[in-house]
Amino acid sequence: MSGVASVLAVPVIGIAAWIIGGWMIADGMKNKGKLVSRAAGVIGGLAIGLVAFVISLIVMGANDDTTTVSSTPIASSTVNEEKEVKTFDISSDTYIERMNTILSRMEKPLKIQVPMKQLEFSSIGEYQLDKNIKISIMANNGDHRLRGAVISSINDGNTDTSLKTLYLAMPAFMAVMNEKESKGVPFLDIITNLMAGKYPGDVYEINGIHYSVVHKDGIDFFFIRPV
């Protein structure tokens, strides 16, 4: 990785860890009330993000030729943690492959590449569709099982942004299910209703999958995770 790419990757990893970590904490405390759970999510997510940020600084500061380390200590350090985290019954690679299959059938075919960066307790990858829209994917380190995904979209009121968000959200929502599971599921309605705030708590669950949206600081965050 070049020096510029390394510098840019550090804050990106920290922010992604903050968003996804905060979301998981907030969701786990939703029975405590919306305000308390979101506050805990922001604070807890920030702590996770800071840890990821520091780890990234250490890892990326090393020489590129010597960044490969033994997998044994990493695997052993994540065994207990990965047992406690809910995951989908697919790997992050399978999820990305499914997304690309769906994208290839669209009017404007697209193939995305999401390199996964292994951190201490999880792996995170991102794909930037444009300056306003991106998807972040989180998975286990050891077995690479998919933990969830987040699509973030700057809500600028522009129709083009909304259409592009829908373009990326559709395959992201669909790819967590296989073809049999997804048959008859109204993905378009689910996404547009989340956008319009038509579901209680901005949450919709189906086939063991939790879809939700959070609006914060002018950005819409669409979450996908196992129930």
What does this structure look like?
Keywords: Membrane, Transmembrane, Transmembrane helix. It comes from Enterobacter soli. The chain crosses the membrane at residues 6-26, 38-62. This is DUF4190 domain-containing protein. With 227 residues, the protein is of the alpha+beta class. The chain folds into two domains: 1-68; 70-226, no CATH class. Helices cover 48% and strands 20% of the residues. The chain has helices spanning 3-28, 34-60, 71-84, 92-104, 159-174, 179-182, 187-196; strands at residues 116-118, 123-128, 133-139, 146-154, 203-206, 209-216, 219-226. The protein has a seven-stranded antiparallel β-sheet, with helices on both faces. Helix 4 (92-104) crosses helix 5 and helix 5 crosses helix 7 (187-196). It starts with a helix and ends with a strand. Residues 1-10 and 57-80 have low confidence and may be disordered.
